[in-house]
Structures are given as C-alpha cells and as structure tokens.
Design a protein that fits this description.
Blueprint lengths: L2 H32 L11 H26 L2 H57 L4
Length: 134
C-alpha cells in the first residue's frame, strides 16, 4: 500500500470512527430503553470511551499529518487537533463535571470537528493529486 492509499484509508477510518462515536452517543440511550439486555454488554461504560479515544487519536493524527505533508494546509491539522482535544476532554471531564447531556454534547461536537477535518484533508489531498504543485 502506497502513502496515498494509506492516508485515504486512515482518513476514511477516522471519519467512520467519529461517526461510530456519534451514533453510540445518540443511539445507546434509546437502545438501552428498548432492549435492556444491551446494558450487560459493557458498551455503556467509560471503558468504551477510552477504547474509542485510543483508536481515534493515533489514526486521526497519522492521517492528518500525512495529508498536511501533501497539501500543506496546516489549518486542517489545527482543526483536527481542536476536534481531538474536544473529544478527549469529554471522558476526562466526564458526567461529574459536564453532566450526562454535557458529556454527550461535547463528544458529538468533538466527533463532528474530527470528521470535518478529515473530510477537508481528504478533499485537499484529492485536489493536490489532480493539480500537483511544482
């Protein structure tokens, strides 16, 4: 796999993981109400959030760094860094500080910023491949 394929895969994975994070936040309360046996699966506890962060941060950082080397738009890297910082702050502050709704809101905002930065990264890399700079 060459660098372009690796970066494209990493951008897509980061967007997918951000989407999974958002779906988890939005749908888990409904699923727990409708199907109480889901509560025993362990996806509602803090460990799930930690594992998502462990997956999202390195994949996102890698894809954004590789992309920025190609298109040289550091604003994309900064946007992704802000999104990751917001995403990381949600489980660190937790519902003790943010409350249940606040934690979900911060997580969703962070996930959306991360996905937005990867979409920008992907598009700029596609442009750079079509219009290479000298």
């Amino acid at each position: 796999m060459n660098e372009n394929e690796t970066r494209t895969w990493a951008d897509r994975a980061a967007i997918g993981l951000s989407g999974l994070c958002a779906l988890h936040c939005l749908l888990l309360p409904v699923a727990l109400t409708v199907i109480p046996s889901i509560a025993g699966m362990g996806i509602a506890d803090e460990a799930f959030h930690v594992w998502m962060i462990v997956l999202v941060v390195p994949i996102s950082a890698f894809a954004l760094f590789i992309g920025c080397r190609k298109h040289r738009q550091l604003s994309v890297l900064a946007k992704g860094g802000v999104g990751l910082a917001v995403l990381i702050s949600a489980p660190l502050l937790g519902h003790d500080v943010l409350g249940e709704v606040g934690e979900k809101t911060v997580t969703l905002v962070g996930a959306m910023i991360v996905a937005w930065s990867h979409l920008s990264n992907y598009r700029l890399c596609q442009e750079a491949e079509c219009n290479p700079r000298a």
